[in-house]
Amino acid sequence: MHVDTSFLVDLLRESRRRRPGPATAFLNRIQGEELRVDVHVACELLAGAELYVRPSVERERVQRLCAELQISYPDERFPPTYAGLLASQERKRQRIATMDLLIATAAVVDGAALVTRNPKDCLADHRPRGRCVLKGLGAAINRRRAFRQRRSGQRRRGAAADKS
Fold first, then answer.
1. How is 129-161 classified by DSSP, letter by letter?
2. Which of 5, 77, 88, 96 is surrounded by the most beta carbons within 10 Å?
3. Which DSSP letter does residue 48 get?
C-alpha cells in the first residue's frame, strides 16, 4: 500500500499535536500492512520541512517518519506507465498535478492502493490496480468536517436569534 503526501502530513500534524486523528486511526486499522512511499512523496515532505518555521526540527521528524516506510524508486516500468496515464488524463481533459501523477504512477506500477486525503489525486481509470483508499480516512475527515459545519451553523443561528 502506498501513502500519499497528504496522508503523511496529516499524520505528522496529529503527532505534533499529540492528538490522534483520522490518519492515526487508519494506521491502527491496517496494522501489519506494508506501507510504501514513492520517492516523490519523500521529496515533497522534505521540501515542506525546509519551509517550516524550524527546518532542522521538521526535517528530523520527516526523516524519522520516512525511515519507518519502504521508499519506492522508479524502475524501467515507470516512464511508459507515466506516459500512458498522462495521455489518458489529457485525452479526457482531466488535469492532475505533475507531482500527484508521479506519485499515482508509482502506486499503479506496484499494483498498490494509494492512501490519500485528496480524491482528486486518484486516477479514476486505474483504481483496480492502483486504487485509492479513501473510504476509512475520507469518511472520518468528512464526518469531522460535517460536525464542524453543523456546529458553526448552530452558532450562526444562535447569533441571529440573539439579534432579533
1. HH-EE-HHHHHHHHHHHHHHHHHHHHHHHHHHH
2. 5
3. H
Range list of H helices, 51-97: 55-67, 78-91
CB crowding 8-20: b at 16 or more within 10 Å, else e: bbbbbebbeeeee
CATH superfamily of the domain spanning 2-134: 5'-nuclease (3.40.50.1010)
Instruction: For residue range 37-78, list pLDDT tens digits in order.
Output: 999 999 999 999 999 889 999 999 999 999 988 999 999 999
Question: Which burial class, exposed, middle or buried, applies to 150 when counting CB atoms under 10 A from its CB (0-12, 13-18, 19+)?
Answer: exposed
**CA–CA dist 119, 121 (Å, integer):** 5
Cell of 155: 452558532
Q: How far is CA 155 from CA 1, 144, 146, 159, 164, in A?
A: 41, 17, 14, 6, 15
Instruction: Record the pTM.
Output: 0.71
